[in-house]
Amino acid sequence: MSQKQRLELTWIGKEIRPKLEPRILLEDPDKSYHADHRMSENDSFDNRLIFGDNLLALKALESEFAGKIKCVFIDPPYNTGSAFEHYDDGVEHSIWLSLMRDRLEIIRRLLSEDGSLWITIDDHEAHYLKVMCDEIFERHNFISNIIWEKADSPRMDAHFFSTRHDHILVFAKNKKKFVINKISVNEEGLAKHYDKVDDAGRPYYLKPLRAMGGDDSREARPTLFFPLTAPDASDVFPIRKDGSEGRWRWSQERTESDQHLIEWIKSRKGWSPYYRIYGDVQSFRPPETIWNHTDVGSNRTSKAEIKTIFNDIKAFDTPKPEKLIHRIIFLATNPNDIVLDSFAGSGTTGAVAHKMGRRWIMIELGEHCHTHIIPRLKKVIDGEDQGGISKAVNWKGGGGFRYYRLAPSLLEKDKWGK
Length: 418
Ligand SMILES: C[S@@+](CC[C@H](N)C(=O)[O-])C[C@H]1O[C@@H](n2cnc3c(N)ncnc32)[C@H](O)[C@@H]1O
Description:
Rossmann fold, four-stranded antiparallel β-sheet, 10 helices, 24% helix, binds S-adenosylmethionine, S-adenosyl-L-methionine, transferase, Type III restriction-modification system HindVIP enzyme mod
């Protein structure tokens, strides 16, 4: 075979590319909104809300923002076939792939070298989308497929499985430059397993000093098999559950130098040594790939948040919980970085980014840009939105945004509309 081949996803119409007429963005100052005074030095007033189709809007952003966006979060229509109140969620599979591809290619150009893309999606398209992103971002820039527990209880009417999760695909623009923030154990309230405090009030937990799992036998590390003296002066050896000889985690020298960290616990089987792990020594941990609803909220959480914000109008069908977006923005950005969401929905990304001191750009095509996003952001700016993450970040209001729409096409249409 002479033709060069490569592994790729193909679909009907993949080779067809839209001809994009560059458009400019026009601000409508009547719809822009700003706090009437500064709340802090870090208030950001130049956030952008763009009303219009995201393909044209992303293209319009390119001249100013190429290489400048630190994090893109998108929650596109999942293509489930549902007809939601505010948008249609069912297009032919190939059409969906083409429209995502066209947008993701521009998104990649907008990302900074150390930037990352986060996409929520479910089983209808997740695996196709992953392969397509491999092609656009290059496979070695794939970071993770996070499982978000979107449901907090089973659905009794499920035909086969009651689906409990969505996927969050994470890609770096350039994996070598991408740095992920670590989760603060204390900040996330995950100090639960630091269940003890020492005399100085420092939290810690205990871990068995005997090695467990993998190479935990005496044979594997003979020098780590030696007796330790228990409080009753007896010798204790590392013995595995099945009665065979095991090994300690520490060398003999370390058991002497770090003796102050060792605690002895007596059970029916006798004395066992444990060692202390302090919260302030290991207070940051890498994020894990399963995100439970108890930590980041579920669809039920976001529906309740939306009801509180829009008590007088029809709530939005498919919002994401603020804590989920907070986790993503926290991991992917630092204060003042720019976050972009080109499928803005009810505006959760902008609301959360704003409260976290990040700059943001949102694009939304539906009328809910006016009925939901603008009122939501006004409440945030006025400090009236005390739901979602507001209390956790001590949100008091401030900043603002500019509202834009796409300038009309400059191309003259002939009588057939071509
Ligand atoms: C699943 S919702 C996003 C929900 C959002 N994450 C939230 O928390 O409210 C997807 C949104 O993408 C919008 N959308 C779909 N196609 C679009 C397009 N071509 N341009 C701009 N927005 C689009 C829909 O109108 C819908 O509001």
